[in-house]
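Morning run. Coffee first, then this:
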Amino acid sequence: MNLEENVLAEFDREMSRCRRILASIPEDKMTWKAHDDMHDICWNANHIVDLIGWTPLILSEAEFDMAPVDGPAYETPSESNPTKLLELFDQNVTAARSALNAVSSSTLQEPWALKQAGQTLFTINKGECVRTWVMNHMIHHRAILSVCLRLAGVAVTPAYDE
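And here it is:
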């Protein structure tokens, strides 16, 4: 198995794990949060779905300005219906997997920059960006979501039960 096949296999496993946890969110728990200073379940779920959706953008563009000086700021989705959120997740996973499947090794080495109001926040290669700011970041928020769901009394299958 080559590196690209390894990455796609890991992507598929992690997306399956993530989908199981997202599918366990009951609508009446979307506004639940563990503490007043924390994000609610809805925000965490939307953030996870949004992160996966960034994959095609990262692989096809050289940069992204989340609050351009001459245009509107990027808005994270705020879907409060768990069924619709799961549909958006499925769409984003399909698009992300397609982009990963088509990307070349040389493209993964190209630089990608995240900007805000024209200022560069960071620049890293596209492969590292997908691994760190999409996959690892998504797994981090999936863990937060899983803990919040358990604290809210929702039975959640452990992500790594296989």
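The radius of gyration is 16 Å. Good start to the day.
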